[in-house]
Write a structure and sequence with these properties.
Large ribosomal subunit protein uL29, 3 helices, ribosomal protein, Ribosomal_uL29, mainly alpha, about 70 residues, Ribosomal_uL29_CS, Ribosomal_protein_uL29
């Protein structure tokens, strides 16, 4: 998913996406360890997507807080 698609998701959907990506990262690392991973760049892409999702979650969290409180 690219950033535009991620921005359209709600906070619960982003949380679920983060869980899915974390599980995918685990699987990719396991494949790397066993020598079955064909494209090691998938790990880097997955880590970046996780970071983007977490950033969007934090932005929505901060936006929901009232300014000045």
């Amino acid at each position: 998913m690219d950033l535009k698609e991620l921005k359209q998701l709600s906070a619960p959907e982003l949380s679920e996406k983060a869980k899915e990506l974390t599980q995918e990262l685990f699987n990719l690392r396991f494949q790397l360890g066993t020598g079955r991973l064909e494209n090691p760049m998938q790990i880097r892409k997955t880590k970046r997507t996780i970071a983007q999702v977490k950033t969007l979650l934090r932005e929505t969290e901060r936006a929901s807080q009232k300014p000045g409180s």
